[in-house]
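Proteins fold. Shown next:

***
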Amino acid sequence: FILFDIILKLASEIQMMIAVEQQKAQFEAQLVHTFTDVCWDKCMDKLSSKLDSRTDTSKDLCNDYHLV
């Protein structure tokens, strides 16, 4: 019965670790989504067929942030 208790305890700890990692992943996904929205709003403030240099630079900085 001792081995069974150890297995149950380990299974419980693994479930807790998985839940924590899932919460971290969800938080990071929300953070990326929010950052993308902010970047888009700041960089793409006007729609046109061509990007001006300010918009192009801003877009590049947002892309660089996501690649880091």
Notes: The longest helix spans residues 2-43. Helices lie at 2-43, 53-67. The mean pLDDT is 81.
